[in-house]
Amino acid sequence: MQLEKEFGFAPDVLGRLLMARGLANSLSGVLWGSLADHMDRKKLLVSSVMLAGIFTLCLAVSKLEWLTPQLASLRGSELKASEIPDAMMPWRFSGLTSALIAGVLPWRDAYRFMGAGTVLLALCLLAMFPAERRQCSERTLAGAVATEMEQLQVIFRIPTFQALLLGGVVGCIPWSALSFMMMFLQDLGFDSSHAALLLAVMSVGRILGCLVGGLLGDTVAGLSPLHGRAFVAQTSIIMGMAPLYWALRCYPHSVRAPSSLAAALFSFSVLASWCNPGVDRPLWSELVSPTRRGKTIAWWTAIAQSFGSIFAGPVVGYICVSVLGYQPGAENHRQGNAESLGTAMAVCTMIPWIICFCCYSAIHATYPSDRHAEGLVGPGGK
User: Fold this and answer.
1) pLDDT number for residue 58
2) Where in the cell is it found (predicted)?
3) Is 362 exposed, middle or buried (0-12, 13-18, 19+ CB in 10 A)?
4) Highest mean pLDDT out of 80-89, 290-299, 300-309
5) What is the DSSP letter of 89?
6) Is 13 helix (H, G, I), strand (E, B) or coil?
7) Which end of the chain is more exposed for a tag (fewer CB within 10 A), N or C?
8) How confident is the model over 89-116, as a mean pLDDT?
9) How many CA atoms lie within 13 Å of 263's alpha carbon, on the beta-carbon side?
């Protein structure tokens, strides 16, 4: 609410900022991944962390509305530290730490704190990170690009990778849409500190969910090597949708019950976080050679998160403002704003996750044939 009053930002404007931040973040991964294969990784790491800290500090002192989107895209982040800290703090220090800082401090102070911390981290890396000694590649730039394209063609022809990529494309949209969660909680009537605590609960849930997803994926894959991980993905999507839908559409706006809302958000975060650690990354490691795994992750991230950035923020903003009548900064219309924003977020989470469920279901058909093609399982595999 601070920035709605200070800059007049409505959700549709914030949606465009989210898109700029997300596109810069996802597309730059391909560049940094390629540079890391040919340059000193210590220098790249230190310089990128230092730049992240500098641009974060610039955001904290920016005065003009036109300046903020430019710095947001350069930083690979976006404006609202106090609105959506979990996804946007520099280098994702920690969702829990960022949420608590943003709930206690004004957004400018929160960005100053995190920017200074990021610069300090860069200096520590410069002083303590061991230097890397690598032989210089004799390949020309044209040769390196040609080799990269050949390897990508091999990866993109794998049917299971195609299913994972399509699932990631639609699966990233809901997580990007949830970047409006802080604004939604404040429209419900929670102050910044209580809203930040609820986001911290979500962050803890995602941490535990990633751990549970990895363990569960390995366990179920041991029982059913050809279908276990696909079952884990389907279960995670279906079970995660229910508590989130309740929080966005069924939570009683007239009565603030933080314990029930916290339980729903925690349950959602634990249940919906299994796909990446329990399904995506293990399948990549099985189907892609070690020399191509970095490229696979970089391109998957660039494509999937780019779609999430393009369709999530702007669509949520358009639906809640242009279709449902969200009124920025209207204190006497906060309940209506919460209903509008909650409905827009529900549309941009439930529908993509239904499509994502279908994409992961296709792995039941593609993965066994890919395993046989790679010689990883015999005819009797299950």
Assistant:
1) 83
2) Membrane
3) middle
4) 300-309
5) S
6) helix
7) C
8) 62
9) 4
d(CA 290, CA 81): 37
Helix (H) or strand (E) holding 239: helix 228-245
CB 22, CB 305: distance < 8 Å: yes
164 φ, ψ (degrees, to nearest 5):
-65, -40
CA 204 to CA 306: how far, in whole Å?
A: 26
The pLDDT-based confidence of 328 (bands split at 50, 70, 90) is confident
Say how far apart CA 57 and CA 66 lie, in whole Å.
16
Within a 13 Å sphere around the CA of 375, how many CA atoms are in the beta-carbon half?
0
Structure tokens at 173: 């949209």
Contact criterion met (CB below 8 Å) for 110 and 102: yes
* pLDDT 10s digits, 271-286: 999 999 999 989 988 8
Q: Would you say 317 and 20 are in contact if contact means Cβ atoms under 8 Å apart?
A: no
Rounded to the nearest 5°, which phi and psi values hold at 312?
-80, -70
d(CA 351, CA 330): 29
What does the mean pLDDT of the chain come to? Answer: 78
Measured in residues, the chain has a length of: 382
Cα of first residue to Cα of last residue in the chain, in angstroms, is: 53
71 CB-near residues (< 8 Å, 6+ apart): 55, 58, 59, 62
**Domain spanning 2-133+143-374: which superfamily?**
MFS general substrate transporter like domains (1.20.1250.20)
> Which residues does 32 contact at the CB level (< 8 Å), separation at least 6?
44, 48, 298
pLDDT of residue 85: 34
pLDDT grade, residue 254 (50/70/90)?
Answer: low
Tokens in use for 12? 């549709």
Share of the chain above pLDDT 70, in %: 71
- Return the pLDDT at 378: 40
Q: Which residues of 116-125 are buried (b: 16+ CB within 10 A; e: fewer)?
A: ebbbebbeee
- Token code pair at residue 373: 């093609």
d(CA 91, CA 127): 19
Whole-model pTM: value is: 0.73
Produce one character per residue of 88-100: b if its CB has 16 or more CB atoms within 10 Å, e if not.
bbbbebbbbbbbb
